[in-house]
Amino acid sequence: MKKLLSIATLFLIALSFAGCFGGGGGGNGELTGVERRQRFKETQPLGMVYVRRGSFNIGPSDEDASRAGVPTKTVSQEPFWMDDTEITNNEYRQFVEWVKESMARQMLGDQYPEFMITEDRRGNIIDPPQINWDEKIDWEDPDMQMAMEDLYLPENERFFGKKEIDTRKLVYEYWWVDLDQAAKRSNSYNYETQRYEGNVYNEEGDLVPIENRSSFMMQDQVHVYPDTLCWIRDFTYSYNEPLATRYFWHPGFDDYPVVGVTWKQVNAFCNWRTKIQSDYLSERGEPTLMAYRLPTEVEWEYAARGGKDFSMYPWGGYYTRDEDGVFLANFKPLRGNYVEDGSIATIKVGSYDPNEYGLYDMSGNVAEWTSTAYDEAGYNYFSDLNPTFTYNARKDDPAVMKRKVIRGGSWKDISQFVQVSTRNYEYQDTTKSYVGFRCVRSTFGEEF
Question: What pLDDT was estimated at residue 302?
Fold first, then answer.
């Protein structure tokens, strides 16, 4: 009798465990999925427009006889969000100010504990400590200035004795996961040996054995302040000193596109933009969103066309003037005559009409960085699904490996370079007075 009771008891326990682990929440034996903690609905990001999914032919259209022989290819592209204008000086300055303040607070934390958070609300130690952004910095306080001394220019480098922040020391440090290397079959995790057996290129370009998952995590340190001297460097025998000394920081240029930024700097900006949004959502207990990033070359061209697949320009026509003879973009319309289109150099973003997707300045103003590595034969091997080609060039790579695609042409370019299909490149470690950028963000669905 006791044996029967024991068997019955064990059977009930087994059923109990089966209910805990096999019921799927509902307990009705049906496939219901894991119970959701909260509902999610993606909202429109500030300053971005929705680019719907679709297919088109990358490259010049049949009507563009000047580029006969350049290959074309039919591709399909998933939807995404895109900044409606190029990133402005004022928007990029928010990034620079954040880096400056974060470095200042870390320095102040050595003498003023209130600038760092060392414990959570339950009294648990936070290691490493977090920056306390609620504590106000008195930049005029001599004692605080002394604590932040390393952030200022040394005395022997100060012009007219003025104490200023040393912009060369403003460095953004971040980490990212190299998914391309992680996805290689040779780098897959071996479940039988329970370890990785492949090799990975680290940040220095050295091929090292994979130790664990952290081997795919890369660290980067990027100087964030724009190269303001590019205005002088780009043009010999040209007086551009006013732009070099005022363009980035003066409020008169707040709404002008930021320039003088390298490809690595704009990628750091995208990482930071993702971070501040993710931190905000996490504090509110909300799910995070897709990361901000540079558009691929194909995403950029698809967005620039605005649904007009066979047009040479974003506005849908074959000419650079409207019916009244007014130029439709900021470029170099006539030999030596930069003024005819309304501006000599850059102009405020959104000064011309947008394309059908609501995107401004997809032709002219400044050319724009993309995430795609430049290869003349790229169209021949690009996938026809969300196509791109990426390569994380290292410092000792030859210059040809550091080419990145730029699109859209700029205020200094003739009309051929502002066509939606024109490809061009710059080296990822160079800065130009005519190259800026805008961000994109992948989306979760098609409800828009």
Answer: 97
Both structure tokens of 46: 């500030």
Phi first, then psi: give them for residue 252, nearest 5 degrees.
Answer: -65, -20
Q: Are 57 and 34 in contact (CB under 8 A)?
A: no
pLDDT in tens, 28-51: 788 888 776 677 888 899 999 999
pTM for this prediction: 0.90
The larger pLDDT score, comparing residue 398 to residue 69, is at 398
Q: What is the pLDDT of residue 219?
A: 93
Distance between CA atoms of residues 363 and 311, nearest Å: 13
Contacts of 139 (CB under 8 A, 6+ apart): 145
pLDDT of 62 higher than 70? no
- What's the rounded Cα separation, in Å, for the pair 316 and 56? 15
Could you tell me what percent of the chain has a pLDDT over 90?
Answer: 74
